[in-house]
Amino acid sequence: MAKRIEVSDLDIYYGAFKAVEGVNMTVEPRNVTAFIGPSGCGKSTMLRTLNRMHEVIPGARVDGKVMLDDQDLYSSDVDPVAVRRVVGMVFQRPNPFPTMSIYDNVASGLKLNGVRQRGVLDTAVERSLQGANLWNEVKDRLNKPGGSLSGGQQQRLCIARAIAVEPQVLLMDEPCSALDPISTLAIEDLISELKEQFTIVIVTHNMQQAARVSDATAFFNLAGQGKPGKLIEMDSTQ
Ligand code: ADP
Ligand code: ADP
């Protein structure tokens, strides 16, 4: 079930340095929202606060509120690890476990969640690889290492791994910037399909990509050298 994200009065710090200031925004479910802006304006930082990955960095701190439907992600009784199960992340560089099999790459999160039955895992692995438009390419080589795939296939494998645990939100940090143009288009098509099931936020510095895949675009900028990034405008793209 996709969920709505509501961010209020968010400031994000690295130690004493305020990287992002005063963000208020709503990210609608079954939509793709693009974060766009110059390098250093805080797009990745912003993304990492949406699944509490930011605070893994020593000294990192968040002020303000992030709601997932009616749940306050930063409430003191919320476990950050549980948040990261509900809000999945795909990174800029495809990062499958390179020596682990394709099958186990997809099954890894489910196994961490305690799923053991082979039949259940088989079904989930096939469904996730289908969902990531990778099944037909890998169904005869599921025991081959994840690192044996092409860059574009590896990124789709990472997406399959992310969706296998059935998150409600998918965060993608420049998911195409390490890929060739053909693989990029395949990932963009996939993102457009996945939005039927998930709330998707994608960081990109490519305006054309934002226009192609997103329903809404959040424009960030730098207030000045050494100053925090700010959300300056939120547009509906289509
Ligand atoms: P991008 O602009 O694509 O996010 P960067 O090259 O800015 O990539 O950052 C790469 C990594 O280095 C990120 O994980 C980011 O958090 C980290 N990083 C960026 N700036 C700093 C900094 N001033 N101090 C420590 N780590 C940083
Ligand atoms: P963007 O993704 O828009 O390129 P980032 O979120 O990576 O921007 O960075 C925003 C600001 O925070 C930059 O000034 C960057 O140097 C700083 N920053 C990013 N990661 C770290 C980090 N791990 N430690 C300290 N400063 C960081």
From TrEMBL:
SUPFAM superfamilies: P-loop containing nucleoside triphosphate hydrolases. Pfam families: ABC_tran. GO terms for molecular function: ATP binding; ATP hydrolysis activity; phosphate transmembrane transporter activity. GO terms for biological process: phosphate ion transmembrane transport. Keywords: ATP-binding, Nucleotide-binding, Translocase, Transport. Residues 5-238 form the ABC transporter domain. The keyword ATP-binding applies. GO terms for cellular component: membrane. This is Phosphate transport system ATP-binding protein. It comes from Actinopolymorpha pittospori.
